[in-house]
């Protein structure tokens, strides 16, 4: 599996992202090339796509936030195509995300949230991350 940071919005990258979005959320809507350009053009957002011989395998996004309590990197939209699951590729994708986070800002704390229903993913994350007992709240602003 090859994992590459996307720095230019291309039709191929857009197709790959849009193919993976439904595996993140049933509510996820396809993004436009303009939205992809905003994401990859942001100085504090880093999008990575994973590919293999069969095409798009997965993706993740790292977002850097500067806070008074110290820098945070958020690992979001970590997804592996369902046909690639159970083959160790999720671990490889997550370990690459951790390595990239260290490269981006080794002083930061890497944060990740995951729905409890994602049992296989949470099992993996518990081997790589410290569990933090916290609540997550969401408020759509539009």
Question: Could you characterize what this model shows?
Answer:
The chain is an alpha+beta fold. The protein has one domain (2-126): Gcn5-related N-acetyltransferase (GNAT) (Aminopeptidase). The protein has helices at 11-24, 33-41, 89-104, 119-128; strands at 2-6, 45-52, 55-65, 72-80, 109-112. Strands 1-2-3-4-5 form a 5-stranded mixed beta sheet, sandwiched between helices. A hairpin with a 2-residue loop joins β2 and β3 (55-65). It is globular, with a radius of gyration of 15 Å. The chain starts with a strand and ends in a 14-residue tail after the last helix.
Instruction: Please name the CATH topology.
Output: Aminopeptidase
Proportion of beta-strand residues: 25-35%
Low-confidence segments, given as residue ranges, are none
Assembly level: single chain
CATH superfamily: Gcn5-related N-acetyltransferase (GNAT)
Computed Rg = 15 Å
Q: What kind of sheet is the major sheet?
A: 5 strands, mixed
Helix content: 25-40%
Number of strands: 5
Please, how many domains?
1
* SS field, number of helical segments: 4
Q: What order do the helices and strands follow? A: EHHEEEHEH
Mean pLDDT over the residues:
96
CATH domain class:
Alpha Beta
- Named at the architecture level, the CATH assignment is 3-Layer(aba) Sandwich
Distance between the termini: 38 Å
Strand order in the sheet with the most strands:
1-2-3-4-5
Which class best fits the helix and strand makeup?
alpha+beta
Question: Outline, from the CA principal axes?
Answer: globular
